[in-house]
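Consider the tokenized backbone below.
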């Protein structure tokens, strides 16, 4: 009797085709500007994929003044450290340096992944540039690897590559729709769309740094 279900080889082939098709589509993320630990009065990020799974997180338990701000660690959804984000003190352009995280908690990695800075010394500027690896902006001939343009504060900006191509964009998050009218969520929840082949971990680090560069004054909440 002939089989009515496909062979395992055909199943694997179909699954592979589906995987390739997904890899060719932009990935969509929901970014919630809130620590996953859910303590009031703390800072952080919780980032969810299109399936609603926690994929990245930043748990920062204080909102110190910028001049006293220390290292920020970008983690995956399970809490494993991915990147170490460190502000460069006395920088006119609000520069940050990002490093790979060491396996040992007793060591600080010296392997720099990228540096990021505001394009202008003006505090109101929402445009920034990224220099990968050991490249720096000290030389005028150095071309940035990525640039962020638009208005991050309004959650309406794009990240472009060295050739001007769009690699990611940030836009306001809408809820509802379907039979009813869509509702625009607040600025603490927004959408992040990343083009295929772009490292989402790096883009999320860009977002965290932009939040620090463009940060507003903060009024602490009392813990209940």
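A designed sequence for it:
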């Amino acid at each position: 009797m002939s089989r009515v279900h496909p062979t395992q080889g055909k199943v694997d082939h179909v699954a592979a085709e589906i995987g390739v098709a997904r890899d060719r589509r932009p990935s969509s993320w929901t970014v919630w500007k809130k620590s996953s630990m859910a303590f009031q009065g703390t800072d952080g990020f919780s980032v969810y994929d299109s399936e609603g799974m926690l994929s990245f997180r930043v748990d920062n338990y204080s909102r110190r003044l910028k001049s006293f701000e220390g290292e920020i660690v970008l983690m995956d959804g399970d809490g494993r450290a991915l990147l170490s984000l460190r502000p460069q003190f006395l920088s006119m352009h609000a520069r940050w340096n990002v490093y790979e995280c060491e396996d040992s908690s007793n060591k600080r990695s010296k392997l720099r992944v990228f540096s990021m800075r505001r394009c202008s010394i003006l505090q109101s500027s929402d445009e920034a540039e990224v220099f990968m690896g050991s490249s720096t902006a000290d030389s005028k001939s150095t071309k940035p690897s990525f640039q962020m343009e638009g208005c991050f504060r309004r959650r309406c900006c794009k990240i472009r590559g060295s050739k001007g191509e769009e690699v990611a964009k940030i836009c306001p998050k809408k809820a509802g729709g379907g039979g009813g009218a869509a509702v625009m969520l607040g600025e603490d929840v927004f959408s992040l769309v990343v083009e295929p082949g772009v490292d989402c971990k790096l883009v999320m680090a860009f977002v965290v740094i932009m939040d620090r560069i463009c940060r507003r004054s903060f009024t602490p909440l009392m813990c209940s």
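The two ends are 68 Å apart (CA to CA).
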